[in-house]
Amino acid sequence: NSVLVHSPATLSNLGCGFDVFGLALAAPYDTIRICRTAEPGVRIQHLDQYRLPTDPAQNVAGVALLALLAEVPEQIGFDVEIIKGIKPGSGVGSSAASAAGAVVGANALLGHRFTKMQLVDFAMAGELVASGARHADNIAPAIFGGFTVVRALEPVLDILALPAPPLWVAVVHPQIEVKTSDSRKVLPATVPLGLAVRQWANVAGLVAGFLTADYDLIGRSMEDYIVEPARLPLIPGLAEARKGALAAGAIGGGISGSGPSVFMLNRTEASAQAVGEAMGSVFAELGIAFNTYVGPV
Ligand code: HSE
């Protein structure tokens, strides 16, 4: 009557695909134990140091489970223990991992009665609490795995799970605070048509690059002309980190989700290591503490 779920960190946006593209990482991950109970409602315990809210109405996993329970006719509830392996606020889908892992676990305890698409919908209720926006670009890869495209949220959720070539990622998390809600406030309300054309050309190129394992095409299609320029001032060192990463052999990259982490895709582990070091040295020079993660997609 209990299951253990490892729910992974995810990269969202992947450059040009704001609120649309997502990619699951092998690590880090949240560990979630969930038990089905006869007592209705949701009880959350956090067995980590982050002091996240445990009131189910304030906790991303709690809100996601309450959304799922609203569709369950039986009088049941869940006891949940969460160990965050993904640091909250780091920009690699920490809230999405907890929300996604909780509903995947609950679904297993309910005989897999919900589809992945429905699970994404439940987990998005958690994302709304965390960031003030209902976006699925971290939830989708956490639940489907691999490379995902959120083609539509309305009128019905439409998510594509696509193949990704072998990739190694380097993520550097500078210890500065960038709240998703704040980094969405700086975004332009309208986009000049010329920029929009360049952006959707890149979106098409990136998808084609993933489908054909064409690393050069992926690299030259990643640039985000719309969102990243607006967020650039929020992350000191970003432009230099990118320059250093490309010189060290990265395929391409940018802000991870809404930041502050910066990610770079690489062909090999050795390249990802070198790229992680190159980016880290930029933040070290600025006197900003940072953590580096290097691992496979
Ligand atoms: N796509 C979202 C954003 C991800 O960039 O704001 C936030 O985690």
Automatic annotation (TrEMBL):
Keywords: Amino-acid biosynthesis, ATP-binding, Cytoplasm, Kinase, Nucleotide-binding, Threonine biosynthesis, Transferase. Pfam families: GHMP_kinases_C, GHMP_kinases_N. The keyword ATP-binding applies. It is an enzyme of class 2 (transferase). It comes from the Bacteria. InterPro entries: GHMP_kinase_C_dom (IPR013750), GHMP_kinase_C_sf (IPR036554), GHMP_kinase_N_dom (IPR006204), Homoserine_kinase (IPR000870), Ribosomal_Su5_D2-typ_SF (IPR020568), Ribsml_uS5_D2-typ_fold_subgr (IPR014721). Residues 64-146 form the GHMP kinase N-terminal domain. It catalyses: L-homoserine + ATP = O-phospho-L-homoserine + ADP + H(+). SUPFAM superfamilies: GHMP Kinase, C-terminal domain, Ribosomal protein S5 domain 2-like. Its EC number is 2.7.1.39. GO terms for molecular function: homoserine kinase activity. Pathway: Amino-acid biosynthesis; L-threonine biosynthesis; L-threonine from L-aspartate: step 4/5. Residues 208-283 form the GHMP kinase C-terminal domain. It is found in: Cytoplasm. Catalyzes the ATP-dependent phosphorylation of L-homoserine to L-homoserine phosphate. Belongs to the GHMP kinase family. Homoserine kinase subfamily. This is Homoserine kinase. It comes from Hymenobacter jeongseonensis.
